[in-house]
Amino acid sequence: MASNKHFDKSPSNLSNNSDIQEPGRPSVPQRVKFGRRTSSGRYISYSRDDLDSELGSQDFMSYTVQIPPTPDNQPMDPSISQKVEEQYVSNSMFTGGFNSTTRAHLMDKVIETKTNHPQMAGAKGSSCAIPGCDAKVMSDERGQDLLPCECDFKICRDCFIDAVKTGGGICPGCKEPYKNTHLTDQVDDNGQQRPMLPGGGGSKMERRLSLMKSTNKSALMRSQTGDFDHNRWLFETTGTYGYGNAFWTKDGNFGSGKDGDGDGDGMEAQDLMSKPWRPLTRKLKIPAGVISPYRLLIFIRIVVLALFLTWRIKHQNPDAIWLWGMSVVCELWFALSWLLDQLPKLCPINRATDLQVLKEKFETPTASNPTGKSDLPGFDVFVSTADPEKEPPLVTANTILSILAAEYPVEKLSCYVSDDGGALLTFEAMAEAASFANIWVPFCRKHAIEPRNPDSYFSLKRDPYKNKVKSDFVKDRRRVKREFDEFKVRVNSLPDSIRRRSDAYHAREEIKAMKMQRQNRDDEILEPVKIPKATWMADGTHWPGTWLTSASDHAKGDHAGIIQVMLKPPSDEPLHGVSEGFLDLTDVDIRLPLLVYVSREKRPGYDHNKKAGAMNALVRASAIMSNGPFILNLDCDHYIYNSEALREGMCFMMDRGGDRLCYVQFPQRFEGIDPSDRYANHNTVFFDVNMRALDGLMGPVYVGTGCLFRRIALYGFNPPRSKDFSPSCWSCCFPRSKKKNIPEENRALRMSDYDDEEMNLSLVPKKFGNSTFLIDSIPVAEFQGRPLADHPAVKNGRPPGALTIPRELLDASTVAEAIAVISCWYEDKTEWGSRIGWIYGSVTEDVVTGYRMHNRGWKSVYCVTKRDAFRGTAPINLTDRLHQVLRWATGSVEIFFSRNNALLASSKMKILQRIAYLNVGIYPFTSIFLIVYCFLPALSLFSGQFIVQTLNVTFLVYLLIISITLCLLALLEIKWSGISLEEWWRNEQFWLIGGTSAHLAAVLQGLLKVVAGVEISFTLTSKSGGDDIDDEFADLYMVKWTSLMIPPITIIMVNLIAIAVGFSRTIYSVVPQWSKLIGGVFFSFWVLAHLYPFAKGLMGRRGRTPTIVYVWSGLVAITISLLWVAINPPAGNTEIGGNFSFP
């Protein structure tokens, strides 16, 4: 029985069926419950049987009788009904979760201001003119009313059906017959209908996959079995024999002209010879004049270190054996640590992309894609936020705007925002961003704006008019700037607006309750009315997430799952603007990408696994709603700085062999860092040296943000064409069975360790959960993510033109299923977090997730673009920076003591890649030896001894060679990586600062977790600036005390006192031992030079530290040094200074 949707303001008429039941469509496990939401926010649920008793109530005066389709009653055209349902879905907030019904609440408005864009939730439309009906008139992609009669009588969809079926097709306005009773031509301006999925059995995803595989099956590609079918190649082309093959036409053109006369826009022979064979990316090797000396120096330094350590072990210092022993142990560890860090740097490479080739292959008219429609795969972008107080909503809104304006096919791009705090402030800020995008995105497209973060763009200090040629740019920029200023004011005022609104509604509810109490109890003494103080949305209903005043089911760790489609999926064809109104957008595509707000369900008693759990919830929800084969994850403060960044990353994924890439990592670049980069916030040594070097192995590690994932790799599958286990000593005794001849397509989705083992489909629900929607989406995502099979060397490819079919429209059952997969119970007894998705159990879930992929044989790529791909913020305050490093180091310690230790890696991981991951887990332990070594110079000066008995020539030569090779290696690293010497030195300084503070605390916390089971919790790093609005770097001078500062302060004080003591001892000695003094003072100054930025940070703002502080410090150091000499005078003396005595 078909059920027609009644699309009016009441949420009680939403069902999970379409106008036409699709053939063979399975029943939907998750249903949308009929529900009416009262003004107080309480839901009253109904079933179809219950509606009969309620039809006479005031809330249900308008209803539609469901009649089976008969010759006299034909349902509306499916293309129209699907569009109308999608409009309904985009205006509804879906909520649900564990042991609760999934409900759709129709939002009259999502923000206080007016929404104009037709894709946006809560967009206003005309009301039906039929008396007693307040439903909305149907609209097209531009938001304009669809009026079936020439008299422009406004009528909704249901009333129009009634007029056609029961009213004889007479218009209620002019009383004339309708000329068109189908509205088909009025829905699509170009007259093209959305292709329907083929009939037959199977789910919607299965039939979509079948449609993609059957689209443009040209034999110009290598078949999936590895054989090239020359017969199909000949007969499927219009070519004849010539130029040595069967591809060229008589006039040298292919696919040109209607009659093959060569007058069209076809490709010539030269084009066909160049286009399919040109790679999308290429490797740029380091010049031999740089890399060869670099490798030679590494080898020389390894030999010198080995000889030096051997000499140190053999030549003890009997006068201070304890000092010698500690120094040798530390030096052995430092040599091992340097070796683990240096060996993975032997093969650094650079890469480059060719965006022009990408456009020619995927967006240029060809025989398989005559219209030139984009054949690029879909893209899902994830933005995560958790606390609007520490992560300002305006920062998140700017990130969202940069994503919506990215240069990527609009219909292929989707943005999902995870609000793990379930805050109404984030929700409404996101809605404001969607509203402002109606102006900002077309403006960026029209004038090629860079960057496309409005806050960063309008804050640029360079000339904004450079290279701008359009005469109306100045006018447009001025108008958009004014709108952006108003947008910022609206977002910044949201906390007060929400609070005032909630107080007003709460007072109204209290008054209502008091009136009811007085009516029910006339003579009784009235008690004060207590009503929970709720947080209210703009449409006058309760917010289903976290309330400002926590209550049951509305707290940070206890609220329902929420999904709101802020911007519905765009139309398949470009939609150009008009010259009327705010901007002249005549030739500008005004469509906006899909934008979805997601807040996963949280309940007490469940481990929600922090950011990793939120990311996995987004993976599942996006698979249901858009199923982009590629995922880009960004922190809320990291925005797209290069609008072409998505295309740059796609070049690697779509290139030959790209199907074996699990992710493309982009470098992290930061704004708002002080010019001197006091605490090495830019971290350029890691991002430009270590990561480039790892790119020459199996690829860089995953560092949390700015990473483009292949969805199938996140699902825990092995890469295609995975090699067998490398031969071992057991292979001769236990030979493996002969590989079965299984087509490559059937081996594309595997989780076993061998290529010839097919996946057991019965185990899929146990791995991924019980959502059939999610499981059916997996092969679709795998197929869409394949590179083009445009060359015989491309294996596991897809036919050109397969991804030009439109995406499916959203319906209520799809969003309801997405609500189900973000519930708190969905991951129970599945492999989410253990093998699938982001991995749980570590505060550095990013490194562990990347390690698991590399361990299965996947490769990754490092993409350094000419213009920074992404930019974000970093904490410039010393305390915040130390806490950030503490979190990273603690995660590394957890990795070392877990099954993710690189020592346990599989044989699929290369040895140098394994060493790199081993160094990730080991580097915090260097802090133990570093602390000891930083105290050694002071102990040497206090005791009058040194780590060697005498400063002989051998020791000094070794020291000189080790120092020179270190400097030369640093210079060569600077040469091939492009960093500056100052950045390298800042990194060395903060390595010692972090090693003596945060790394040591991380080792202690990690050991406590492993030995005693003490869980580690961290707070979010604040993205807000200091209180001084006049100083951009106010945070830099803020001194916030933390216990992490104790070890570095102690080291500084002890070394300063030791230098004073050493000078005093030597000066007052009868026989001064200058060699030991020089050795101790040299190493003390080495320690103090590295800790200088730390000491500078403790002094606060320059000029604010009183001079008396320095005077007191000097007096204390001198007094303590003299006291030490008096207590332990030089040998042969019992007085201070020998013959000198105080008067």
Automatic annotation (TrEMBL):
Residues 10-20 have a biased composition (Polar residues). InterPro entries: Cellulose_synth, Nucleotide-diphossugar_trans, Znf_RING/FYVE/PHD. UDP-alpha-D-glucose binds at S384, K390, E391, D420, K610. Residues 1-39, 185-205 are annotated as: Disordered. The chain crosses the membrane at residues 288-309, 321-340, 916-939, 951-972, 1044-1068, 1074-1095, 1107-1127. It is a multi-pass membrane protein. Mn(2+) binds at K611, D635. One of its GO terms (biological process) is root hair elongation. Keywords: Cell wall biogenesis/degradation, Glycosyltransferase, Golgi apparatus, Membrane, Transferase, Transmembrane, Transmembrane helix. This is Cellulose synthase-like protein D3. The keyword Cell wall biogenesis/degradation applies. The active site is at D420, D846. Its main location: Golgi. Belongs to the glycosyltransferase 2 family. Plant cellulose synthase-like D subfamily. One of its GO terms (cellular component) is Golgi membrane. GO terms for molecular function: cellulose synthase (UDP-forming) activity; mannan synthase activity. It is found in: Golgi apparatus membrane. Pfam families: Cellulose_synt (PF03552), zf-RING_4 (PF14570). The keyword Cell wall biogenesis/degradation applies.
